[in-house]
Amino acid sequence: MSLKQFLLATALAAVTAGAAQAQGPSVKIGVLNDRSGLYSDISGEGSVIAARMATEDFKAAEKGLKVEIVSADHQNKPDVGSNIARQWYDRDGVDVITDVPTSSVALAINQITREKNRIFINSGAATSDLTGAQCSPNTVHWTYDTVMLANGTGGAMVRAGGDTWFFLTADYAFGHALERDTTAVIQKNGGKVLGGVRTPFPGTDFSSFLLQAQSSKAKVIGLANAGGDTINSIKQAGEFGITQGGQKLAGLLVFSSDIKALGLRTAQGLVLTESFYWDLNDDTRAFSKRFAEKAGGKMPTMVQAGVYAGVLHYLKAVDALKDKDPAKVMAKMKEMPTDDPLFGKGAIRADGRKIHDAYLFEVKKPAESKGEWDLYRQVSKIPGDQAFRPLDQGGCSLVNKS
Domain spans of the chain? Predict the structure, then answer.
């Protein structure tokens, strides 16, 4: 071998060794959600797109991280979701599950993830029990919860004079938690709940329930439901002339995709709370434009935005550690401040609650809208420490009581 060949071989070996040293762990991320039913518009394939965008934007490959993203449909059924999660963890090597709308499914995945010592970054479910009585050292609750929704929409409606309420509540964990947390806010602000009814989940015909709400004479009818249930409730309330009669609807969990489906003529004036909206600022607009190009023109929902931000923060922690050990990664995720273009700066508390600002919006009138997705007018910003439950009030066993 000549000296030139020797030097070239030595340099190549050094580069190869350096690349091997820089190579980080391989991680597999499972996006588990509703891909075909009631909540497919708020999560579904859009959440998979968001997870892929987070991986691309983080430049995982350039940092030596090999990231694989898989997805599955839990059909809004806890048993189906549980079976998928166990298979992913036991057989398929999934390191982290994200999204998971439908609180009953999320609570099941929360428990399985703890048993299997993996990581669960929830964006889709609402129940505040995920950071309360059923909190887990393996779970982060990223985007929103029933306390945030109650403090935002519920508090605003009572302060505006809506001091008597009647609930239409989806009869499963999410609806029960949302009614509970909103009732607490109503009573704290001097209001009163006159009654309520539990509705089958999912449902299509809400006419008899709406008639009960109408006859209650409550000033506000609280819709403790989501997705297609909310859309159908609002449409049928319009058909019965409920809002024309003076009662107001409180959409306690409403997404931009719901408003798009309803149309501004039907939804105008509805007050709602979200922690993300595509048109909030330059960063959210830039992301949403790229998302829409991949999602058939649809703007991202709050849930899909949360999947993006949660995956991004997870990858930052893995990259910082060059390790995917769940306990180490979770500790790093809580240690590092969160910072992304969709939710801005924030933090993950000891109970797993991700803290960031929330926003109270009012749906625009048709004449006010300047485009297909120009849906909201911002009423106010709710600082994160006011939007979410105080750390010491959730009953989470992870919180130091000293």
Answer: 26-144+280-352, 149-274+358-384
